[in-house]
Amino acid sequence: MTFQLETNTAAPLSMTVPANSRTTVHLDDLPGLDDASVSTKVTCANGATINAERAMYFVYYGDNLASGKSGGHDSIGTLTPSKTWYMAEGYTGGQFDTWVLVQNPTTKTATVTMKFQLESGTAPDHVFTLPAGGRQTVHLNELEGLSAGVSVSTKVTSNVDVVAERAMYFNYYGKDGGSDCVGIPF
Description:
mainly beta
C-alpha cells in the first residue's frame, strides 16, 4: 500500500494476505496518517487478483463546529486511472457539503480541469495543478457558481491519468450522514 497525501508523506505498508481471506487496515493507526487526507494505492506484488475498498466513519463539522454530522460511507477501488471521470451527483446547499477528490498516481504533474453541469446551465471551470504522487480535495460549495445551493454533476479531465471520487456530507431532514462514490472513467 502506498499513500498520497496533500501536505506530507507516509511510509508504504507491506503485508501478506493469505489466499481466500481478507484484512482490514486502520489508516489512522499508521505513522503519518492520523488526521490526514489520504489516497491509497493497493498493489499485489505477486500478481494475484485482489479486491480493495475504503470505508470511512466520521463526525463531519464542515463550517459549523456546533453541529457535527456523523455517519459512514464506503467506496470500491478502481482498476485503472483515467484522463476523464464523471460524477453525476452532488448538491451544495443547506446542510449539504460536496467534495471532489483527485489523486495523481503518476510521475508527472497533472493539469486538472473540473467542468460542472447544473439543472440551469453551467458554472465556471475549476483548474488546478496536481504534483506527481499528490492528491487534492476540492470543496464544491466554495466555488464560483456553486455556492448558492445547486444540484451539480462534475466532469474531471486531466492531461495525465488520475483517479477521482465524490464525497458528500449532509443533514437531510434531521438525518446526518454521508455518501461517496468513485467516478466513472471514460
